[in-house]
UniProtKB/TrEMBL annotation:
Belongs to the ferredoxin--NADP reductase type 1 family. SUPFAM superfamilies: Ferredoxin reductase-like, C-terminal NADP-linked domain (SSF52343), Riboflavin synthase domain-like (SSF63380). Keywords: FAD, Flavoprotein, NADP, Nucleotide-binding, Oxidoreductase. The lineage of its organism: Bacteria, Pseudomonadati, Pseudomonadota, Alphaproteobacteria, Hyphomicrobiales. It is an enzyme of class 1 (oxidoreductase). Residues 14-114 form the FAD-binding FR-type domain. Signal peptide: none annotated. The keyword Cytoplasm does not apply. PANTHER family: FLAVODOXIN_FERREDOXIN--NADP REDUCTASE, OXIDOREDUCTASE FAD/NAD(P)-BINDING DOMAIN PROTEIN. This is ferredoxin--NADP(+) reductase.
Length: 268
């Protein structure tokens, strides 16, 4: 395997890392996560994404993937959907430990703490694999230095799709260092839209009706105290953004920090 890896490394295009898969976990027919080695010198901010790829028929195929592990972690973690005819994911879903993943060297993204001005509370709104950048940020010490309360909402069609997030939060709470870091600042609010569950409904409906805030025991969105990050499908971003703007919140960016930031959950 070593010889094969070195041989492969020699064929890598400039500006691309070749990293070894360390673990793969399948959650449903449509969702899986994996970890891979982190290249020496690869730096990123929690919440950013990178271009991940595989050689397919002799050519590299890349897609944008949020890095789900925090900036301090030794390994890189990703959470992906499986699309039967997805140019990358139809192959990526078959990866095994020891396989080589391509990664372009420059991470980027708007779901970073630097893009938000300070406030009391941070809401992270996610649907589906849109939870990935928040998996990184809820394990980032800076998140808890900057905010007193962190609310992660995750909405999926079915209960089984919530498992990645449920496992992650459980892991944080049972980890000695992370649980101390997070304390009681983190709230995980999970809902589904196509099955019965403790909480049901789209996050947009839960915000609009006030049910989310009632369930959390918190006041409605307020630009004085609240900040937001949104990650989901294009439609979900549009609808959630409209609700935050209706609450008087302004969209920010890396070079213009403000009240909320958005990023598409990538697919394909
Ligand atoms: P629904 O089941 O009502 O479509 P998807 O897999 O289609 O991206 O959906 C993931 C989750 O996001 C589902 O629970 C889905 O609810 C929800 N969703 C889809 N579109 C929107 C939207 N425009 N605003 C808020 N939530 C949405």
């Amino acid at each position: 395997v070593q010889a094969k890896t070195e041989e492969f490394a020699a064929t890598l295009p400039a500006g691309v890392y070749g990293e070894k898969v360390l673990s793969v976990k399948h959650y449903t027919d449509h969702l899986f996560s994996f970890t891979m080695t982190r290249p020496d010198g690869f730096r990123f901010r929690s919440g950013e994404f990178a271009m991940i790829g595989l050689m397919v028929g002799g050519k590299p195929v890349y897609r944008a993937y949020s890095i789900a592990s925090p900036s301090w972690a030794e390994e890189l973690e990703f959470f992906s959907i499986k699309v039967p005819d997805g140019p990358l994911t139809q192959h990526l879903q078959k990866i095994e430990v020891g396989d080589i993943i391509l990664m372009r060297k420059k991470p980027t993204g708007t779901l970073v703490l630097d893009a938000l001005t300070p406030a009391k509370r941070l809401y992270m709104f996610s649907t589906g694999t849109g939870i990935a950048p928040f998996a990184s940020l809820i394990r980032e010490p800076e998140t808890y230095e900057k905010f007193d309360e962190v609310i992660l909402t995750h909405t999926c069609r079915e209960v089984a799709e919530l498992q990645y997030g449920l496992d992650l939060v459980k892991e944080i709470r049972s980890d000695e260092l992370l649980s101390e870091l997070v304390g009681d600042k983190l709230t995980h609010y999970a809902s589904v839209t196509r099955e019965p569950y403790e909480h049901t409904g789209r996050i947009t409906d839960l915000i609009a009706s006030g049910k989310l805030f009632e369930d959390l025991g918190l006041p409605p969105l307020n630009p004085e105290t609240d900040r937001g990050m949104i990650c989901g499908s294009a439609e979900m971003l549009k609808d959630t953004k409209a609700l935050l703007e209706a609450a008087g919140m302004d969209e920010g960016a890396n070079n213009k920090p403000s009240d909320f930031v958005i990023e598409r959950a990538f697919v394909g």
